[in-house]
Amino acid sequence: MTTNIEKRSYVGAVEHRADDGKRTLIGYAAKFERLAMIGSYFQEKIAPGAFSTAIGGDIRALVDHDPGRVIGRTKSGTLRLREDGVGLAVEVDIPNTTDGNDLWELVERGDISGMSFGFRVTKETWDETGDVPVRTIQAVELFEVSAVAWPAYEDTTIGLRSLDAARSDGDSASRNAAAAARRVAEKRAALEQRIRGIRQEAS
Length: 203
Hints:
The protein has helices spanning 98-109, 156-202; strands spanning 6-11, 14-19, 22-31, 36-38, 42-46, 60-63, 66-73, 79-83, 87-93, 114-127, 134-148. By secondary structure, it is of the alpha+beta class. It has 2 domains: 6-154, no CATH class; 156-203. The strands form 2 sheets. Strands 1, 4, 5, 6, 7, 10 and 11 form a 7-stranded mixed sheet that branches. Strands 2-3-9-8 form a 4-stranded antiparallel sheet, covered by helices on one side. It starts with 5 loop residues before the first strand and ends with a helix. GO terms for molecular function: peptidase activity. This is Prohead protease GP4. It comes from Rhizobium favelukesii. Keywords: Hydrolase, Protease, Viral release from host cell.
């Protein structure tokens, strides 16, 4: 599977619905504009539109991010995803399998009450004007959504590397701006000296 995958979980996002023998889990794998503390290192929020180009691929629904425990898939129509004004909405038709039946029972009992998603950030911004850096995720590549027992903010090192890269880019931009300012000042000084020389020759 693709490297640099991050995982985020949200508690209280899973409901279940049974209709004409079909069992469906519904909820949100992500909600927009909600600040979450990631590993005590930085805060993070997801901007509306972050999933707009990500939900058209072949995405799986899993149990606890385990690729061996597939319970739905967009390609087969058993997993349906949409982005609305709240976030990434998920519907999964639960299969009559061991994992599916166990998951249904655990959701009914309230033992599992969270959803999560595995993703790679493709566009982001950082704000370090406050006490804690804030990362805004603007676009992602989506790999899977999961029903989870524990809220997990995994792979914070990827986010930290992204912050380091943003800082490095910022330092580079500052250096480039300073160099450009120096070049402008040098050209201005040279022009002023040339004008003074012309005036002296004229007098």
